[in-house]
Amino acid sequence: MWHTVPRWDLLGCSGWGPSDRTAPVIRCSSFELLAPSKGGRWKEEMGDRGRRKTLVGTVVSDKMDKTVVVQVERLTIHPRFKKYVRSRKKYKAHDEHRECRLGDKVMIVESRPLSKDKRWRVLKTLEKAL
Questions:
Q1: What one-character DSSP code corresponds to residue 15?
Q2: Domain ranges of the chain
Q3: pLDDT tens digits for 52-70?
Q4: 54-127 CATH fold
Q5: How far is residue 38's CA from residue 5's CA, in Å, rounded to a whole number?
Q6: Considering only CA atoms, which of 101, 115, 106 is closest in space to residue 71?
Q7: Tens digits of per-residue pLDDT, 6-38?
Q8: Is 91 exposed, middle or buried, given 0-12, 13-18 or 19+ CB atoms closer than 10 A?
Q9: Does the pLDDT value for residue 83 go beyond 80?
């Protein structure tokens, strides 16, 4: 059975490249596509782990063991009234060394799920509370 091969050279890709995998590889500037072998799908592989989200917020609770609650504030424009509205959201973040205290300004980074509610880790403390 013949398969139609898309024109990857028109998309700015370098064409088929050698690979140690059994499936042929199409190399592009930012990622590589693996051709499906047995009825599979095209799969995108990133070279590194990708960029993780970072947020800056204030610690509002440090009563849990190795966990802090960080409140992040955002300014969004109201769709109807065109006025800035302050929205807040709380994130539970993992604090391995128990360095964060109430009122500290911290930077948190996205991570794998650590518990039911924790998906963030404390990256660094930006300001200590008085």
A1: -
A2: 8-45, 54-127
A3: 999 999 999 999 999 999 9
A4: OB fold (Dihydrolipoamide Acetyltransferase, E2P) (2.40.50)
A5: 15
A6: 106
A7: 554 444 555 444 544 455 554 544 444 444 444
A8: middle
A9: yes
